[in-house]
Amino acid sequence: MRTGKVIIALLIFSINLFAQEIGDVVQIMSAERELKVLFEDLYTVDDSPYRDSINEVIINKLSVLLITWDGFHYKWDALDNIGKVTSEDNKIRIFSWYLKNPSGKYEYFGVVALRNEGKREKKHNNEFSVFVLNDQSHKMREAASLLLSYDNWFGAVYYQIKTFRYRRNTWYALTGFDFNDDFSNKKLIEILTINKNNEPEFGGAFLNGENEIKRMIFEYSSQIAMSLGFDEKLDMFVYDHLSPFEPIFKGSYRFYGPDGSFDGIRFEKGEFIIEKDVDARNY
Q1: Predicted confidence band at 241 (pLDDT cuts at 50, 70, 90)?
Q2: Is the dihedral of CA 53, 54, 57, 63 positive or negative?
Q3: In this predicted structure, what is the pLDDT of residue 212?
Q4: Is 54 exposed, middle or buried (0-12, 13-18, 19+ CB in 10 A)?
Q5: pLDDT at residue 240 above 60?
Q6: 163 phi-psi bin (left φ>0, alpha ψ -120 to 50, beta other)
Q7: Which H helix or E strand runs over 71?
């Protein structure tokens, strides 16, 4: 009889647990539908104050959802008009998007969800931390040389993430896109690390000879496409080398575009090494 009671108790516990998990997933799916509508409104509503309110609701919803087990691990496939990247080690998720303000300038928004070190219990919601990104790029001078925090962020929509390790350290390399303005666009390679306070920091070590910069920023004509991504065969980031259309346009990046050659960046012992004239004919 005792064994039977134990089996029944375990069965009831399993049914309740299963129902709770189904309930969580149903709630996440419902939230996904709500967010999809909110993002659609965000890009179609012309009223700036109302649009700002929608954006605030989106940020708050994502912050609450991504701090939970189900929210962090859910695919969010329906949110197909924003940037979503997940690291290979499943420790970082970043959602990013943009707004164009009435003056024609672009502002970027995002949230970073981190899986906290030392938390490995299944369905343990305290396992995750969420940080709201604050775009301050419009105030930055010499942004390529700055080490930045999540609250002082060089805004972009991220479309790729790649994980690198050396000894006990981990770097997450992000590729991103910035509309910039009506005349030029930007792409960038951004390095994210987790500091001792378990907070995201932005900026790495890109070496070009003896010079070091914190992030790679490429600016080029808004009428031209630029390729930038990680090539698995070459084991490096590969990108179009940009040049002015005519020598007289040197330094005026609205007149820059690919010149047919490629450069690359490879990871070596905790540093990102810039290489010129990469053979990327199959890229």
Answers
A1: very high
A2: negative
A3: 85
A4: buried
A5: yes
A6: beta
A7: helix 69-73
160: Cβ contacts below 8 Å, ≥ 6 apart: 85, 174, 175, 229, 230
Residue 215 pLDDT > 50? yes
Q: What is the pLDDT of residue 157?
A: 98
**Positive/negative CA dihedral, 64, 68, 70, 71:** positive
CB-facing half-sphere around the CA of 144: CA atoms within 13 A: 13
Give me the phi and psi of 99, to 5 degrees please. -135, 140
Specify the amino acid at residue 82: I
Helix (H, G, I), strand (E, B) or coil at 83: strand
Separation of alpha carbons 267 and 272, rounded Å: 5
Structure tokens at 276: 């010129």
Radius of gyration of the CA atoms of the chain, in A:
22
Given a cut of 80, whether residue 210 has pLDDT beyond it is no
Q: CA-to-CA distance for 206 and 190, rounded, in angstroms?
A: 10
Please give, one letter per residue, the 3-state secondary structure of 176-242. EEECCCCCEEEEEEEEEEECCCCCEEECCCEEECCEEECCEEEEEECCCCCCEEEECCCCEEEEEEE
CA distance 113 to 134: 14
Closest Cα partner for 172 from 144, 192, 154? 192
What would the mean pLDDT of 59-74 be, rounded to a whole number? 93
Sequence length of the chain is 283
Cβ atoms within 10 Å, residue 271: 15
